[in-house]
Specification:
This protein is an all-alpha fold. Helices cover 62% and strands 0% of the residues.
Length: 91
């Protein structure tokens, strides 16, 4: 793999890790007593804690790719290389 491939893979992994931990930390904060949290319990989170709601929204949307957030340039780079005829990032 060439240096550009390493940089793209590292960027993608760090962005994915950051968004996953963001979602995990919001869920841990909302369910602070250690119980299992259901989706219905997240209703009204934007009123109780707007900052947590915004963090969860950005994290979930980023992991889902809607709208394209920080992990998109790396994933787009990886997915478009075969169409450009460059498969050197696999070697």
């Amino acid at each position: 793999m060439n240096p550009t491939g390493y940089a793209a893979a590292l960027f993608y992994a760090l962005a994915y890790l950051a968004m996953t931990f963001t979602c995990l930390l919001v869920v841990v904060k909302v369910a602070s007593d250690g119980r299992n949290l259901s989706i219905a319990e997240l209703a009204g989170l934007h009123r109780r804690s707007p900052l947590l709601a915004m963090a969860l929204m950005v994290g979930v949307f980023s992991l889902g790719g809607i709208p394209r957030r920080s992990d998109s340039p790396a994933s787009s780079w990886f997915s478009l290389q075969p169409w450009r005829g460059d498969i050197s990032y696999w070697c």
